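W.,

You were right to be curious about this one. When I first looked at the sequence I had no strong expectations either way, so I just let the prediction run and decided to look at it fresh. Below is the sequence, 533 residues in total, followed by the output.
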Amino acid sequence: MYTALEALGDDFDIFYNKSFARKHAKEDLLYEIDFLVMDLRGGKFNHLFVIEVKGGNMYYNTKRNQWKSGDHYLDTAPEQQVMGYVTNLLYRYHTQLAHKVPITWLLWFPDGIKNKREYLPTHLSFWRVLDQYALANPLKNLDAAIQGLSQDYVQFQGIEKAVYEESIKKELIQTFTILPNAKALLQEMQLSVEAMEQQQKLFFTGLLGIPRLGIEGGAGSGKTLLARFSAVHLAEQGKKVLLLCFNQQLKTQLSEGMHPNTVVNTIHSFMVEQINQVDSSWFEKENKQDPDLYEERMPMKFKSLIQGRSLTEEERFDVLIVDEGQDMDGAWIETLLLHFLKNEGQAIVFFDPKQNIFQRDFYLPRAENWASMQLLYNYRNAKTINRFVNTHLGLNTQSGNVPEGIPVKIRPYHSENLVEELDRLLLRLLHIEKVNTRQITVIVDGSTQDWGLEGRELPQAKLMLRWLSPTEEKEKGNLYMTSINRFKGCESDVVILILKEPLLPISNANIRYTQLTRAKGALWVLEEISTKD
């Protein structure tokens, strides 16, 4: 279709697959148009065509007054969809186009052939529908559309081509300028701005123009990579960025290669820093082992002290980015927006309700107008792991472009011989599977303090068990362990998950989902069984 339209020549401008973020108050927050065709014949901008494309076998059911694509009915009729785009463009370019340049919408079904004996919706004129034959001569169809509405637009005289080029075209051809550090992150994500799935394209559009962006995505959907990219890209544009997450391990990963304009921290460390500026002795006196300190007292102290301060514009941030937002209470995010973000500042929150293992009261602050997006594909877990998770948790997550992987292995153990079972498994991984110990992470169920494994030796594998530090490098000769509380938001090539109970039945779906999805390539599950079992 693009090739056919491009053959129209220099008298037409063709824009394909253009994403837009709201500029006018009545525009949709985010939308994408298949084709925009500008008629520039005679040196003027005479006509704008908005074309919605629907591939495959399309059929209009008159009894149901509904379009059918293949074997399913469409929730939104294509003509309603494209008419919405026209309305958006009229709001967006009202100054340039209103009563000057007509906007005509068309539907293009390139896999079908029009038949005058077929019924169409009553408001859908026959000339608005393009079919397979339009590929050979699109100009004929565009002229037919102009003729079809000729009486409606007699008073429209178009605008000068130079005016169009300085306003509308200038905006449409602007490129998403990516500076070196951000470009390196895109390469790490194996993405290019030209070849992204729709949700990712809309993300980059929203990154430039949406003041409040809430992005929901499952494990491995790219939330952390996109959070890092957002921070680097916006900092390189001269913005002062605050990037917050929940745990120290994830903070360490987010901090790597970060732009100096960006402050990276965990939410609780950020609270402590702010509290210390006003009351430096408060945190020292608190019992650090008391969970209520982090759940209740610290957030309340933080909020009360901040409400009593008046931060200067220089102390505030242009951008707030929150990764793993479901780990934070919605009230915490409200405080950050109200007191630490500039009046015209931007906020981006990444979250996954399925990973809310702390049962936080997470929400996107309701007083704000949030644009919501979803990341649909899992780019982390091998397909075998993704299928295992889907099967055991009743999900339907789609795999992205990832390897098939090896089947997930489940092995029983008795509490008294856990170390011996772990030693045998490591011997196999190291000497038969040829896995490097740095690629392996052991995740234990519950708290790290409950296991008594620190310093235990695996004699056959010749390794020592150590707890993973969020700030120290892994040392040779050690096998590192952690808990999901400390490791959520992170990933490992090989994960050995040690459970305190059988895998099934699953007692807490959020915790189990988060544990299982840390593994990229291989997953081993050790489930405890009693001696009697």
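Here's what jumped out at me. The CA atoms of residues 216 and 332 lie 18 Å apart. And, maybe more interesting for your project: Residues 291-307 form the longest helix (17 residues).

Coffee later to discuss?

I.
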